[in-house]
Amino acid sequence: MRERVRGFTLVELAIVLVIIGIILGAVLKGQELVFNAKVKRLVSQAKEMMAALYTYYDKYGYYPGDDPTAAKRWTGTIPGDGDGLIGGWYCSADANSESCRVWQHLRLANIISGDPNDTNPTSMVPKHVFGGAIHLFSANATVAGSPRSGYWLAFVNLPGKAAEALDRAIDDGKCNSGSVVAYNGDCGTGGSYQENLYYEVWINF
What is the pTM of this model? Predict the structure, then answer.
């Protein structure tokens, strides 16, 4: 006599589905907590970098990268021209540009962490918590349709959701207005960031 094959009851299936739902909810909540923690760190990085610039100025009377007295203080360091600007835009190719030397000067002054002897533009540039490069420079630039000048802190390759959160924490949350703007990438209706895009977010200060 064959044994009767017993299947799952509706109650058992319901219990399994509830357990799966709880697990999925916990995973999604965990991902949200991790993202929020990374955004808080991103905002802190922005504030730390801007504070580093002024800390160096208060200490030495010149901006890092632009400091013409740096070579007298640290042997082998290339000084800046002392014109009050951090030239060079992004530190991407020329390690001797002021926008690259800014990181070396800040590290030699023990204001930020990192190897002060690193002269490779790819590795000497700090990375933000989402993995992209951070650049610090001064320039006259047309950003979000408006000409602006001053010092810029740029976060490269920033996910749209993170870019919006950073903008909202520091400014107005719109990618085409205020002191935090998207240098590239499409702005949606009302200047909204698009979650499926990556942005170069520039902070003017």
Answer: 0.85
Residue spans of the chain under pLDDT 70:
1-8, 29-30
The DSSP secondary structure of 95-159, one letter per residue, reads TTSHHHHHHHHHHHTTSS-S-TT---HHHHS-B-TTS-BEEEEE--EEETTEEE-SEEEEEEEEE
**Structural domains of the chain, ranges and CATH numbers in brackets:** 39-204 (3.30.1690)
**φ/ψ of residue 201, rounded to 5:** -95, 125
User: Each residue of 28-37: b (16+ CB within 10 Å) or e?
Assistant: eeeeeeeeee
For residue 5, give the 3-state DSSP assignment.
coil
The pLDDT score that the predictor gives to residue 186 is 84
User: pLDDT tens-digit profile of 76-109?
Assistant: 899 999 999 999 999 988 999 999 999 999 999 9
Tokens of 175: 């990618």
Q: What is the DSSP string of 167-182?
A: HHHHS-S-TTSSSEEE
